[in-house]
Design a protein that fits this description.
Length: 357
């Protein structure tokens, strides 16, 4: 490190967030949304507001850390048709840290297999539900950072970069809600080393820098690296109201009068059906996975007091089966499945597909 480095405190290179745009779009759309869509929009507004609050909590920790580092908030990357939105990317003296901010409420438990569950109180009862692992989610963000940075290296140096990447680049999951309870007594060690609460963030970043064998960077090197990622980030032009508009389709009798699905065993008269791909059943609705997804949709709609097609309509249900996503990122490629819907239903849908695969 250069002798005359002067950086002693954090520098916020990018503070603005796409969440503000998302909140504005949702709030504007709420004024004109159809009556049956409004409850879902209002719920998504609340979730967005909670997310903004969580990220503000992290920004407060950064500003008061007295750590020499460059902080970038809400970066959006595109590569080979894939997109990644990173809550915080931080360049410290020794490390580049990818931070996923989660404003989860309730009791968050991580078991010995690394599975995340959340227990919340609803009235006089507690409900426990599995959630998609934020560790897995943030690892995909880290993978994108790896590829973007690797491409900037000369061919002869890429192998060496791959070898040191895991030492120089780290992933952290921060639970930003101060009232949430984190229980990970039985969690694998590698998970414990990546999940913390917001009030532990500053000490954790210091500890990571102290323990790593990565070389220190000068002020200039830190700034150049931060600028590199800032320049690679692109503007997110997503329309956050599009999913509601896509869901406003003429209701089929099945959607409008949905009841708990039952598979009939009575003989059925032969009906002509469109020709299907070789690997797809001619009558998709008769498959166990279709019935399982339909049953899940019905039960969730009753639980949340919303119409079933708010969760996914019949066209989306069929697309889920046809594309058979194996992770949350593949699910997000299906029309109508954005961050909020995947956060709420993604883990359940993926488990149903896995059970029937």
């Amino acid at each position: 490190m250069a002798l005359f480095d002067k950086l002693r405190d954090p520098v916020i290179l990018k503070e603005d967030s796409e969440a503000a745009t998302q909140l504005q779009q949702l709030s504007d759309y709420l004024n004109t949304a159809p009556a049956d869509i409004r409850p879902q929009v209002e719920q998504d507004i609340k979730l967005t507001q909670l997310g903004i609050k969580g990220e503000e909590n992290l920004m407060f920790e950064f500003r008061n850390s007295h750590i020499p580092m460059y902080v970038m908030h809400d970066l959006f990357f595109e590569r080979d048709g894939l997109t990644t939105q990173i809550d915080y990317l931080v360049v410290t003296r020794k490390l580049v840290i990818v931070i996923e901010c989660k404003n989860l409420y309730g009791e968050i438990d991580i078991d010995n297999q690394g599975n995340f569950t959340r227990k919340v109180q609803l009235g006089n009862r507690y409900v426990k539900k599995g959630i998609y692992s934020p560790v897995t989610q943030n690892q995909r963000h880290l993978d994108m950072i790896h590829e973007i940075r690797r491409e900037s290296k000369p061919l002869l140096l890429r192998g060496a970069f791959d070898k040191i990447f895991n030492e120089n680049y780290r992933s952290i999951i921060v639970l930003a809600n101060p009232s949430s309870v984190l229980k990970m007594r039985y969690a694998p060690a590698e998970i414990k080393g990546k999940v913390i609460k917001a009030d532990q963030l500053v000490s954790y970043i210091k500890e990571l820098n102290e323990k790593t064998s990565a070389p220190k960077m000068s002020d200039k090197e830190m700034k150049e690296l931060a600028d590199f990622f800032l320049e690679k980030s692109v503007k997110n032009t997503k329309d956050y109201t599009e999913k509601y508009k896509k869901d406003i389709i003429p209701e089929t009798a099945d959607d409008a009068t949905e009841a708990a699905p039952v598979v009939s065993t009575a003989p059925q008269a032969a009906q002509p059906v469109p020709e299907a791909p070789a690997n797809e059943p001619a009558n998709l609705e008769s498959t166990p996975v279709y019935q399982a997804l339909k049953s899940y949709r019905y039960n969730k709609s009753r639980e949340e007091n919303i119409k079933p097609y708010f969760i996914y309509n019949n066209a989306q249900l069929e697309e889920i089966i046809r594309k058979d996503p194996s992770d949350i990122w593949q699910l997000k490629k299906i029309s109508g499945f954005g961050d909020v819907k995947c956060e709420k239903y993604g883990a359940d849908i993926l488990k149903i597909l896995s059970d029937h695969r």
